[in-house]
Every structure is written in C-alpha cells, then in structure tokens.
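FORM 7B: Structural annotation worksheet

SECTION A. Query
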Amino acid sequence: MRTSRPHFSSLNLLRYAFLGFYALITLGPFLWALSASFKPLPEIVAGGLNWWPQQFTWENYRQIFVQQPLFWRWMLNSVIIATSVTLLNLLFNSMAGYALARLQFWGRSFWFFLVLAVLAVPAQITLIPTFLILKALGWLNSYQGMIVPGMVNATFIFMMRQFFVNFPKELEEAAALDGLTRFGIFRHIVLPLAKPALAAQAIFIFMGSWNNFLLPLVILFEPEMFTLPLGLNSFKGQYISYWNYIMAASILLTLPVLAIYTFFNRYFIQGVTFTGSKG
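SECTION B. Predicted structure
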C-alpha cells in the first residue's frame, strides 16, 4: 500500500493541475470583461491584454444607469419574463414528467416518444412558425409573446420524468392509504422531495430565458419592450461600438444568474445526478 501512494498523489496532482488550467481558460474572458468594464473606450480599443485598468473609472456604470433611461425598463422586462418562464416550467414540466413516469393512460408511450422527437429539433427551426403564430394571435411585442412559447421545455420534461421514475413508490402508496388523492400526493409528497431536480431545472431555465437573444430579436421591436440582452445590442452602432458600456452592462447581466445559482447550489449537483441514473 505504501508504494502505491506516490502514484495516486501524482495522479491527483496532475488532475488538479489540469482542472486549474481549465478553470483559468474558462474564467479568463470573464475576468477580462470585468476589467474592461472599468476602462474608458480608448483603452479597450487600443488592444492588449492588460488585466488591470490603466485609467480606472466608474463612468461606464454611471452612463448605463443615468444616461440610458431604458436600462431599468430592460432589467424589469428581463426579470418579469425570466421569472414567469421559470415558474411556469417548474410547474408544467414537473406535472408532465410525473404523468409520463407514474400515470397509466392511453397514448403514454406516444407522448413520451414525441417529447424525445422534440429534443432533436433545433430551436432555431421553430422561430418562423413561432413568429407567425404570435402574429396571428396579436402577441408580437408583448410579455405573453415572450412567456407562452417558453413555458414548457421538452428537455426538462424528460429530466423530470427520469427523476420520478427513480422516485420510491412506497411513499406514494403510503400517502394513498392515508387518503391523499393523486394530485394531493403530487403536491404534498412528490414535489417537496423533488427539490434537487427542481433546483437544477430552475437554474438552467432561468439562465436560458435571461440570456435569450434570438426570440426577443424576432418578436420585440419597440425599445420599451426590449430585454437586457437585446438592449445591449443598442450599444453597437454601424461605425462604432461602445465596448466599455457593453462590458459594464454584461457584468450586470450576469449578477442575477450568479444569485440564482448561489441560492440553488446545494441542490444542483443532487438534481443533475438523480435525473440520469435510470431510464
């Protein structure tokens, strides 16, 4: 046993060195963006990889908050849309996943394979049909036009189905003996114990909705209805791009996602692990 310890120590050292190097590569662009958010525009466009601003300034953030009157409206729009989409997904994806995992009904296999088929369709292909449907409904440039198309997600229906397949049936049977209905079992027994899967789902859905750029670009056309990612695009002109403002706004854009991840972090790893162990 003593002769094998140096081997495992060297292997662990190599593994941690590789992970550390990968972390630096991953964090590098973010750290540079954070540094650039405190630089004036001439210093950014001058090039170079100086990680610390030579002319440190808060002017970029002040300009965003003071000189861009629609920034707070863009922030509000993003909060309303991302929060609504996340909550609706948590509800509907969980209900659909539970039905596919536990309920016996005609066509269950068909609906499950339909969910799998939707997973193979890139989201970009559905943009034009989505636009035409929303136009027919009169929902262009509206909150419902941004929320309704994203209130269910086939990926997370499948994910919740995988979680509920592994859920112990004994707990549901005991609850049924105590007189709970199927909905009561789902509401009072299943959902409270599904926090890891729900937390992982909430992180991914909120992050995807918060950073969504393509759908707002297609259906939103009034600046007052822009979300933050779409609003950031207004800092790019035909002849000049205000990268100092873009970097500052991008840092502010990441803060809610970091807050959501921090809040749900203790459930995140459990949720990812539990939803992939059984088919």
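SECTION C. Observations
The chain has 14 helices and no strands. The domain at 61-274 is CATH 1.10.3720.10 (MetI-like fold).

SECTION D. Sign-off
Analyst initials: ____
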